[in-house]
Amino acid sequence: MMKAAVTTKAGKPNVIQIQEKPIPAVQNGWVLIKIKAFGINRSEIFTRQGDSPNVKFPRVQGIECVGEVENDPSGTYKKGQKVAAIMGGMGRDFDGGYAEYAALPLAIVFPFESKLPWETLGAIPEMFQTVSGSLNEALEVKKGETLLIRGGTSSIGMLACQLAKHYGLTVIATTRNADKEALLKSNGADHVLVDDGDISSKLKSIYPQGVDNVLELIGITTLKDSLKCVRPRGVVCMTGILGGQWTMKEFTPMGDIPSLARLTVYMGDAANLSDTLLQDFINAVEAGEISLNISKVFKLDDIVKAHELMESNQAGGKIVVVS
């Protein structure tokens, strides 16, 4: 038997209950992982609230985890191999990382080696996959370019700033709280703009032609303004929905997208990650070249409190749970 945090039905954080469940059986093409840690993600809040299509309850949520291989029928990994798993239906189509063990498809499992503590490793998979995919796959950033990060104090925004600086970009980060300016500057931002909903006019005073790229983490509530921030042929990538809204009531492409500006989205996928990318990033964290912004670490028994903190928007960094 194992301990699992089960979302019993759609609702508030208290619909998640700690239960004893059988350790899942592992089938061919899947691997049983002894989970050591996992991050809490905004999409999991929406799933818990009943806003993820086709998710049936009860469900063990969790779209990411790190841990050690317990059993791999294929022989791909030996018992004890450190691995990360991410996306691919985790916590939605089948039970995910909110447990002591999970049976997961080999296609979404990535091996690594590290001496970092599990609570640090637990912050990495989804956060790194999202940031790396947004910058490299969606925006295709290049050294010397400018990047505006809308939602700079989020865990994704903080890591995106560090990774962008690592790539040689100039970074402009936004925050709604002027008191966070020093935090963003210490994280590597070259410029900080206080977001009152109208960033484009402030940004144009620094870069009259606009920036090369915008990483939009707030979502549709600020998307129209973010589109005004790019230069001709500049790209806006909508990756986050921190604003909490999925659908825009009114959008006029011929008016809201400036001429020659480009709009894309990044929704993430395990296929955008590789063993090499993950290991290189973990090595950079170990070497002190990248600093992860971890807000708080919870035990599995306290996962309701972890969801409450995420939902309060007061975390200021990645929330991690250790098993």
From TrEMBL:
User: What sequence ranges are listed for the domain Enoyl reductase (ER)?
Assistant: 11-321
Which Gene3D superfamilies does the record associate with it? Medium-chain alcohol dehydrogenases, catalytic domain, NAD(P)-binding Rossmann-like Domain
Which GO MF terms are attached to this record? NADPH binding; oxidoreductase activity, acting on NAD(P)H
What SUPFAM superfamilies does the database record attribute to this sequence?
GroES-like, NAD(P)-binding Rossmann-fold domains
Q: Which UniProt keywords apply?
A: NADP, Oxidoreductase
The protein depicted here goes by the name NADPH:quinone reductase
Per the UniProt record, the lineage of the source organism begins with: Bacteria, Pseudomonadati, Bacteroidota, Sphingobacteriia, Sphingobacteriales
